[in-house]
């Protein structure tokens, strides 16, 4: 049981596909007649030994092959929601990667509707609120992202916003400016991964070219004092994922994670799990791991939780409930 179970948690950096545990992957593989390139759950779990972001993404995209139907997407997110409810989850803004599925012949609507089914059920059965954030894959062509956004017009009622993820190095945010402008016209909120592996300049580019309201990861902003000053002044939320940073070797040891420096600088930092099935911990586990590695006093834990509420796209009424 997490020490921080009673602290109301808000997840702002959580990839639906990153919640696929090996057990469910094999269940879905059997159900859909799909074969995985691993003999067993243990063998798959043993492959979770990453050297960088790309080595993780290769496995992450390979295992998505088991996700085929609306029901699969429901079952995937529902398993995450049930498990996280026990760790104090109250609100979640879920990233998903439609291009990873439509490129395999899965219907866009089955992906969105299945995930939305799980969120609707979580509202009723678990008291968890949330929404869906459609992420474009930055290492795929911009016109594919534009087509994906046009497909999303049939589901604007269930989409909270758009994001940008996948391989960072060599794939800057700038080329997606037009797609993000169109998303804003459609009334969607905007976030992007930046400053995870790519340098601080990618964070500034996401703010300037895409108009993002939150930055996912952003840890490398510390390399640029002017950028830090701007992020503090503009109160830009940064969704930090220490277990991800450890497993993808952005940091070599959790004790060396720059979270304390980010807090000391006055940045609006919050703690999230990113891809919990792959990185060894859900949101409560993330608080526990930081506490074990660095110490975490109650006031700081409460600040991290409150920053997540403030940085969320929940309604003012819901934010008041979550605080
Ligand atoms: N970074 C980039 N892309 C991703 C990640 C991440 O941490 N997780 C899933 N897709
Ligand atoms: Zn991420």
Task: Walk me through this protein's architecture.
By secondary structure, the protein is of the alpha/beta class. The chain has one domain: TIM Barrel. It contains 16 helices and eight strands. Strands 1-2-3-4-5-6-7-8 form an eight-stranded parallel beta sheet. α4 runs parallel beside α6 and α7 (142-151) packs parallel to α8 (177-185). The longest helix has 18 residues, at 108-125. The mean pLDDT is 97. Zinc ion binds next to β1.
Number of strands: 8
H and E order = EHHHHEHHEHEHEHEHEHHEHHHH
Spatial arrangement of strands, main beta sheet: 1-2-3-4-5-6-7-8
CATH topology: TIM Barrel
The level-1 CATH class: Alpha Beta
Average pLDDT, rounded to a whole number, is 97
Helix content: 40-55%
Which architecture per CATH? Answer: Alpha-Beta Barrel
**What structural category characterises the helix and strand content?**
alpha/beta
Task: Catalogue the unreliable spans.
Answer: none
Report the principal-axis shape: globular
């Amino acid at each position: 049981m997490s020490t921080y179970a009673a602290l109301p948690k808000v997840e702002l950096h959580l990839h639906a596909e990153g919640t696929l545990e090996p057990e469910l992957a094999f269940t879905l593989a059997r159900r859909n007649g799909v074969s995985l390139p691993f003999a067993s759950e243990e063998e798959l779990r043993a492959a979770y030994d990453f050297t960088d972001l790309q080595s993780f993404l290769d496995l992450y995209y390979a295992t998505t092959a088991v996700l085929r139907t609306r029901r699969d997407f429901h079952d995937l997110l529902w398993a995450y929601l049930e498990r996280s409810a026990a760790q104090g989850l109250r609100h979640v803004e879920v990233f998903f990667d439609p291009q990873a599925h439509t490129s395999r012949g899965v219907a866009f609507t089955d992906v969105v509707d299945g995930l939305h089914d799980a969120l609707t059920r979580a509202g009723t059965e678990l008291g968890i609120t949330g929404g869906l954030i459609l992420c474009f894959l930055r290492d795929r062509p911009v016109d594919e992202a534009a087509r994906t956004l046009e497909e999303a017009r049939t589901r604007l009622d269930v989409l909270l916003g758009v994001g940008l993820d996948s391989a960072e190095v060599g794939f800057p945010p700038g080329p997606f400016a037009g797609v993000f402008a169109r998303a804003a016209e459609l009334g969607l909120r905007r976030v992007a991964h930046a400053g995870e592996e790519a340098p601080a300049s990618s964070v500034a580019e996401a703010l300037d070219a895409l108009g993002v309201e939150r930055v996912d990861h952003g840890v490398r902003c510390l390399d640029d004092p002017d950028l830090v000053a701007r992020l503090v002044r503009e109160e830009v939320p940064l969704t930090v994922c220490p277990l991800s940073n450890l497993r993808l070797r952005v940091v070599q040891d959790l004790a060396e994670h720059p979270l304390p420096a980010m807090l000391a600088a006055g940045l609006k930092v919050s703690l999230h799990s990113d891809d919990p099935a792959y990185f060894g911990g859900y949101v409560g586990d993330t608080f526990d791991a930081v506490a074990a590695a660095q110490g975490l006093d109650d006031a700081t834990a409460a600040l991290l939780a409150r920053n997540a509420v403030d940085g969320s796209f929940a309604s003012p009424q819901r934010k008041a409930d979550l605080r």
